[in-house]
Task: structure prediction
Amino acid sequence: MKRIDNDSFYEFIKKYDSDRERHFVGEVDYHLLCDDKPYEGAKSHREALRSAFEWLVEESIEDKDSYRSMFGDDLADRILPLVYDIDKAQFSPLDPQVFFYCPNIVKTDYYGNVWYDAEWVPNDENCGTTVPYWYAVMEPVQSRGNKPEDFKKVNEVLFPNGTNALDIYEWTIDWSDYFDAGHEWYGTCCWSVYDKTLSRYVVMLVSATD
Result:
């Protein structure tokens, strides 16, 4: 599995979050991949997920080395490399219409709080659990004012040939400490998408707290 480093999608989403080192819109971290091997459904999705986490581990080790050079061993030793076990991850297929559902804004109050015509709403019961894709894009921890039209445009650029030829899997989020932050408060998610028209995988990760 190979990482796609240069893609027009990455250039497009810079306007949403140019400060982060990886490729974010809202709280969604996007990883684009391709493979020379034939597509084998869930097996290929798992390998895409494994590859994405191998890169995340490399980044966590680099972060630790950077902290060591700047702040010394004591602080660097508090930063642990990312731990994961892809083989423990379980998946469920998702209908594209469900995955790409986008609610409308009903009202916005004086303080900027937004209400949507959606069944799913953030509350104490949902705290630290999985979140919908639309919510992770439009309602990040630090609001960036993303609207339904932004959500739709991001996905039009990411999947230029539409969503009919997409295989989408949602994965459990109990197999890596990457998701610990999201379990604390905001929420988490892990999705993998295969676009048959482009022979391309997209791994999307969400894990955030305040």
Helices lie at 8-13, 42-71, 73-76, 96-99, 133-138, 148-158, 180-184. The longest helix spans residues 42-71. Residues 7 and 32 are 9 Å apart (CA to CA). The radius of gyration is 17 Å.
